[in-house]
Amino acid sequence: MTDLAALDPRPFPPGEYGVVVVGSGPGGLQVSYYLSRLGIDHAVISAEPAPCGMFRQFPFFQRLLSWTKPHTAFAHDTREYERYDFNSLVAFEPQNRAIMPGLMDGSSEFPSRAEMEAGMVEFVDRTGIAVRDKTPWEGTSREGDTFVLHTPDGDYRTKVPVFAVGAAQPLMPDAIPGIEHAVHYVDTRDAASYAGKRLFIMGKANSGFELASGLLQWASPIILASPRPAQLSVNLHSLGGVRARYVQPWEDAELGGGVFILDASIERLERHDSSIAVHTRRSDNAEPFVAEVDEVIAATGFTAPLRDLAALGVSTFGRSELPAMTNDYESVTLPGVFFAGTITQGVSGLKKFGIPANSGAVQGHRYNSRLAVREIAARYFGLQRERPQIDPGTVVERLLTSASITPELWHQKSYLAHAISRDPDGRLRDEGIVSLAAYVDEAGPDGVAITVETDDRGSIHPAVYVRRRGRVDADAALDEAPLTEYRTPEHRRQLQVLLGDVLG
Q1: Rounded to whole angstroms, what are the CA distances from 252 to 202, 214, 256?
Q2: Which is it for the CA torsion 366, 371, 372, 376, positive or negative?
Q3: CA 233 to chain centre
Q4: Could you tell me the pLDDT band of residue 456, with boundaries at 50, 70 and 90?
Q5: 196-219 residue pLDDT tens
Q6: Three-class SS of residue 303?
Q7: Which end of the chain is more exposed for a tag (fewer CB within 10 A), N or C?
Q8: Strands 288-293, 295-298: parallel, antiparallel or unpaired by DSSP?
Q9: Cα separation of 161 and 363, whole Å?
Q10: Any alpha helices (H) in 128-232, and if so which ranges?
């Protein structure tokens, strides 16, 4: 009898594994890397023919939103450089860090889709991780505490599935009458085909402004509409708003160049002989307004393709149906099911000043993955993280250095923190990077955590959370610094005062 498994050159044949990771985008690859470095048995399966499938399609106008800066004060093989490289995956080995700068052609600090895909493939090759491609996850069932993931190749059994499936399932507002006359963002055509067209874009988030930017020289007028005002990332102090790359349509609207930005709800679409009538109602005065256009594109977002996980007990929330997660990126309603990648934006974290973490972007979720794997390793495989003992005299400098240069704190402001604790015997332990929300909300030993925050005035500064007798009573901000260098005599004095005797 022919052994079919022996004829299949792909890794990870169906069977039982310690962990099964679904998805080969940046989130899935980063999880696999951390698991492999801990020696944890796992499989990675993906429907795609090669890693990084999403970036073979999106963004439509080729270049990513986040930068990779090749020339900074830090060498590429240092962790500090990660602060200026939003797109490379994280590696412990210096030779495997900062892969993206070496693959970019130098024409832009924003990598193209092709460059991003090449970076993911290079990361896989360099680090020795593997993916079983062309193996789509089709459904899930349970047998006791074992999850069974069904694929055309066979079943994968594990106690710990990690879903890094992205948020890439088109979301259409089906309740709007006539919505069939619109196409979703994913079905946008070649830009030149919109030459001279009157264009209506439903949505004023990044995908809507991306389309407006890319079609600015082709379509006229361009109308962007949604009920609530658009918000800029530079005003929100986060990636949650429209990014700087896409503000040209905003300026065009202000200067009368043919872009119109409406705060209005879309009530219905009607097909006429040669046009589409978009019926709207203005948000400010409830007055109706009808736009006669040639094309309508729904830049209305995406949902997380969780298939049957909801039926198994995974709770979701919001328009994007993101899974509700603990601070360890585990389902709040179905223990054992973890998530990675862009859908980890479903973790609320601290969200101080109403500013969400950057978990939806690569530079954010690459650090989330490490915390998730750390939890998995401890709970299911008995691998506890290192907590090195440190000298009390180094605490202040250690924390201020972290606030000045540590990429986790800068990419995940008010969300990740560097913590130091005191054992019952008085020894100080470096806890490394932790979830700030978990540190604040959960009981634990006396200690201190430092993070970087942007307050509601736009001021960037370190924030210190001191835990005494098992709880954090309050936080305190250190002074801001013009060049974000906090290793100054004044900052040392301020931190020392805040610490008091909490660390002995």
Answers
A1: 18, 13, 6
A2: positive
A3: 15
A4: confident
A5: 999 999 999 999 999 999 999 999
A6: strand
A7: N
A8: unpaired
A9: 23
A10: 206-214
What distance, in Å, lies between the first and last C-alpha atoms of the chain? 70
Task: Kindly tell me if the per-residue pLDDT of 7 is higher than 70.
Answer: no
What φ, ψ does residue 89 adopt, rounded to 5°?
A: -75, 160
CB 142 within 8 A of CB 95: no
Q: What whole-number distance in Å separates Cα of residue 352 and Cα of residue 455?
A: 8
Q: Rounded to whole angstroms, how far apart are CA atoms 247 and 251?
A: 7
Q: SS3 of 430, please?
A: strand
Sheet of 139-143, strand order = 15-16, 154-158, 146-151, 139-143
Categorise residue 429: left if φ over 0, alpha if ψ from -120 to 50, beta otherwise. Answer: beta
Cα-to-chain-centroid distance, residue 332 = 19
**Cβ neighbours, 10 Å, residue 122:** 18
Q: How open is the CA angle 219-110-71, to the nearest 5 degrees? A: 150
Cβ contacts of 330 within 8 Å, gap of 6 or more: 336, 337, 338, 339, 372, 375
pLDDT per residue over 110-158, tens digit each? Answer: 999 999 999 999 999 999 999 999 999 999 999 999 999 999 999 999 9
273 touches 236 (CB < 8 A): no
Predicted confidence (pLDDT) at residue 442 exceeds the cutoff of 90? no
Distances (CA, A) of 200 to 109, 145, 167, 183, 269: 30, 50, 24, 11, 11
Per-residue DSSP letter, 57: T
Per the CB < 8 A criterion, the answer to whether 237 and 414 are in contact is: no
Structure tokens at 474: 């309050």
Q: How far from the centroid of its chain's Cα atoms is residue 198's Cα?
A: 34
Distance, in Å, from the CA atom of 323 to the CA atom of 306, rounded to the nearest integer, reads: 8
The domain segmentation of the chain, as residue ranges, is: 179-300, 389-499
The DSSP bridge pattern shows strands 183-184 and 295-298 to be parallel
CB 263 within 8 A of CB 283: yes
Answer positive or negative: Cα dihedral of 371, 374, 379, 380. Answer: positive
Q: What is the mean pLDDT of the chain?
A: 94
Q: Quickly tell me which residue has 């004023």 as its tokens.
A: 204
Beta strands 259-271; 222-226: pairing state: parallel
Dihedral sign for Cα 37, 129, 67, 259, please: negative
201: buried, middle or exposed (CB in 10 Å: 19+, 13-18, 0-12)? buried
Q: What angle do CA 493, 409, 400 make, to 5 degrees?
A: 20
Instruction: Give the chain's length.
Output: 504
Question: Quick one: angle between helices 26-37 and 113-127, nearest 10?
Answer: 10
- Kind of pairing between the strands at 428-435 and 416-422: antiparallel
Q: Which CATH number fits domain 179-300: 3.50.50.60, 1.10.287.80, 3.100.10.10, 3.40.50.300?
A: 3.50.50.60
CA distance 328 to 323: 13
Radius of gyration, alpha carbons of the chain = 24
468's tokens: 């005494």
